[in-house]
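Record 1 of the preview.
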Amino acid sequence: MTFFGGKVMNVLGVFGHSFRQVFGNWRQTLRISALLLLIMIIGQQWLIESVMQAGASQYQSFEKSLFIVVFNTFILPIPMIIAAVNWHRFILLGERVGWLPRIHLRRDVSYFWRGIVITLYAMAIMVLGAAIVFLFALAAQEIIPNQTAEAVLLAVVGLAFFIALYAFMLRLGVSLPGAAIGGATIRDSWRATRGQWRGFALLTLLAFLVVLPFVAVNMLSIQAPHDLADDMVVVALKLLFAVPTVMLLLSIVTTLYGHFVEQRALV
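->
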């Protein structure tokens, strides 16, 4: 496949392969993800309500604020990490689970640490890119007299920056299945995906479309009344959207790892 004269990955092939992984193995998909994502969503609901209560209160203790930060950073991701490690191992190693997903403590910790490293890399690029966009905006004010043209140009530059940032994160994220199975490092997966920037950019746009309905549900749920009955409906609705969305994103990363790092064919 070519794009502006250069060869890029088969983006639709990657997406189609990932789609078949999730829905062609729907029993394993549900066993690995449903309970863990339910736990995570309930934790998210509690966190949202705690933050809203803290915002409405004039006084917020340091201990409670610290607990919210620790909960969000170190506790809330645990179910997601366990599900991700189990899914990567199922797809790449054929390791099936029973009614409950398995805990691979060493691999789970390695996965969490690699996620932290990728996040730090992304934050560094974000700060650098934001500074460049800011300087570009200052220069545009002096060069372009028309405010509408300036706004359109800045919107295009900002969009390009965010696509580049998430493509960068996706390329780093290809190493995550390696952490789950004790395989390739960040450096290994980075080398294996060399020259595929345009493909990652296209795949980032496609992934954004996949995530959009789930994000919309989350945004609407914040506006919902927070009594027990409404919370149960919100949790059920979030779970309905979370399972296919999260597992499809995990499968995209797994497919990229299998295709580029392990040289597997897209079938």
